[in-house]
Design a protein that fits this description.
By secondary structure, the protein is an alpha/beta fold. Helices cover 46% and strands 11% of the residues.
């Protein structure tokens, strides 16, 4: 111990300071990794103790790498100070005010990463930046989610603790600085210090790379060493995943993605879509003809987060959280093997209303101006065939939904939260039954125009923070106390509320009601891409038009909703989308993306392909 102390005292104080910071960084990251494991313990599945230890060991590699990045600034400052001696002590305060924002950001990212993973089944990614456009919603979301308070407390304690420790380290350095500066052999010592800094810089470079045996630096795929999704993610560092996804989202924008040569890509897509003799300038356009045209009205309800796992048929919840939706599937054409395009609402809105797929990245098409043009999706085609239209949700400005849909055939865009100046206590604006109730008059207006119409909705109450109206609306009596479960019950009750009204209206008999979800629910632990997060229902309900209920197990995805709906309407059109009519065609597999990870699911298998190309 005495020898170790002598060695430590022989190290320049500036190097001691950097080493202390490095050790402190590793302790912080390891503590948050332990908290992450505790918070997500229900997903541990068949994970063993040895696999947990392996995940923590993997984590040290990522923590070392991130620590190397965080210490670049103090390393350069310390090198400058040692080679160009400064007797004044004030400059060390610069360290404090330079390092505090860096460590505050790191602590905040680690704290926010845990609830992010529990919700999205992925470590922190650049998609969090999409929320910066609506800070009021973000702060409201946090304020109204008591389950997040513990993470806010941990972050606050981390802020306080790191401030105290940095001050202590710097004060220790300042109190001993004169001894170093007054050394009569300073020139020789400066050469020695330069050598130490070169060695330290080399070690820092190795730490950042994460490995020395291969040319390829550390990637997130190196953490995936088991078959357990939670333990694979446990090894990652949230700052590493955030930085990696931020870089990838810039690199993998649609303008820069080029997976295979374009002629081969077109050939493959045409083969997959059954296009043997292209007739249009667009290589995917194909004519769709029907025997008769009926032009029924359409009400399309995009249900927030209503995955198949919520339905009574899943057997996951007892009693069922969705008795009304369950009953509706028994009276409808219900596609039970149906999947979402991604894990975010913007993925679902994009795919449902344009019948196109999202690129495998954190890219949000709805907020990019270069994507602000009309697509040949459901709104555009129906508008060209004489349909009036509306789209209603609580906040149509969120993710720029309203503007995009307005350019894609939806004439009236309604934000009920703005109309009602937001419902008190609900961060997203209006609860579901209020969204419906406040727009009944709009549907009636469409009907009175004596033209066919499409009325579309995006509900919101089945999204965290899970809150139901207070006081409860008349007739709603939740059976569960858990906020998430009672919110699902309320979302289901709100659907019944809507249909109770619709059944009394003159437009009901001639209307096809389409119910689909934007994405599923991150339920349990199964695969790296959670199966339940993409398994969603598709329901066509029209008791006067669809007289025979049917459960269809054929594979389908959100892009197929529009072409399949056109089978009911019988309108001849040119399908210039990636969607197919599930009544006439069949898919061998459906694609899905979770940020930069993609999957393809068939009737019996699921392929997951990571960003680094591994499966």
């Amino acid at each position: 111990m005495k020898y170790i102390k002598q060695v430590w005292n022989s190290i320049p104080l500036s190097i001691q300071f950097i080493l202390k910071l490095h050790l402190l960084t590793l302790v912080i990251f390891s503590a948050f990794r332990l908290l992450f494991l505790v918070a997500a313990w229900e997903q541990i599945g068949a994970g063993t103790f040895s696999e947990i230890l392996e995940a923590f060991a993997n984590g040290l590699r990522y923590d070392n790498s991130i620590s190397g990045y965080l210490l670049i600034i103090p390393y350069l400052l310390s090198l400058f100070v040692e080679l160009i001696p400064i007797k004044a002590k004030w400059y060390k305060s610069i360290y404090l005010w330079l390092m505090l924002p860096i460590y505050y950001f790191a602590i905040f990212a680690c704290g926010a990463d845990i609830p992010y993973y529990l919700y999205f089944n992925t470590r922190l990614t650049s998609t969090v930046f999409n929320w910066f456009a609506t800070p009021d919603i973000v702060f409201g979301f946090i304020a109204e989610s008591p389950e997040y308070y513990v993470y806010l407390l941990v972050i606050a304690l981390g802020f306080f603790g790191i401030y105290k420790l940095l001050r202590k380290y710097i004060n220790t350095w300042q109190s001993k600085q004169e001894t170093i500066i007054s050394d009569s052999q300073y020139k020789l010592k400066r050469i020695k210090i330069a050598g130490i800094f070169i060695a330290l810089g080399l070690l820092q470079f190795i730490a950042i790379r994460g490995k020395i045996t291969t040319m390829r630096p550390l990637s997130w795929g190196d953490a995936f060493t088991t078959s357990n999704p939670l333990l694979n993610n446990l090894g990652l560092n949230p700052l590493f995943s955030l930085g990696n996804s931020t870089f990838s989202s810039q690199k993998n924008k649609p303008s820069s993605i080029n997976l295979i040569d374009e002629p081969l890509a077109i050939q493959n897509v045409q083969k997959y879509l059954g296009i043997t003799s292209p007739q249009y300038s667009s290589p995917i356009a194909r004519e769709c003809l029907f025997d008769s045209t009926t032009k029924h009205n359409v009400v399309l309800i995009v249900m927030e987060g209503m995955g198949n796992c919520y339905l009574g048929k899943s057997g996951l919840y007892s009693p069922s959280l969705t008795p009304f939706l369950d009953s509706l599937t028994e009276q409808s054409i219900y596609f039970s093997n149906f999947y979402s395009d991604g894990i975010h609402t913007h993925n679902g809105i994009w795919s449902i209303f344009t019948s196109m797929f999202s690129a495998p990245s954190e890219y949000n098409y709805l907020v990019e101006m270069n994507m602000a043009h009309s697509f040949a999706g459901i709104g555009t085609v129906l508008a060209n065939n004489g349909y009036n239209s509306m789209f209603a949700t609580s906040n149509a400005a969120f993710d720029n939904m309203g503007a995009v849909l307005n350019m894609n055939g939806f004439k009236d865009i309604i934000s009920t939260g703005e109309l009602l100046n937001k419902e008190a206590g609900f961060v997203w604006g209006s609860s579901d039954h209020i969204i419906f109730n406040s727009t009944f008059q709009n549907i009636d207006k469409l009907y009175k125009a004596r033209k066919p119409f499409i009325a579309s909705y995006l509900t919101i109450s089945n999204h965290g923070p899970y809150q139901i109206p207070n006081p409860l609306p008349q007739g709603f009596h939740p059976k569960h106390k858990d906020p998430m479960l009672s919110a699902a019950e309320y979302a289901d009750w709100s659907l019944k509320y809507f249909f109770d009204y619709a059944k009394q209206q003159p437009w009901f008999d001639n209307t096809i009601f389409v119910l689909v979800s934007d994405h599923g629910k991150n339920y349990g632990s199964n695969y790296e891409i959670n199966y339940f997060y993409k398994s969603i229902p598709l329901v066509f309900y029209a008791p006067k038009i669809i007289t025979q209920a049917q459960k269809i197990t054929k594979l389908g995805c959100q892009a197929d909703l529009f072409p399949t709906l056109m089978n009911f309407l019988g309108i001849n059109y040119v399908n210039n989308t990636m969607g197919v009519n599930l009544f006439r065609e069949a898919r061998k597999y459906v694609p899905h993306s979770q940020h930069s990870t993609v999957s393809a699911i068939s009737d019996s298998m699921m392929l997951i392909r990571r960003e680094d190309g591994t499966n």
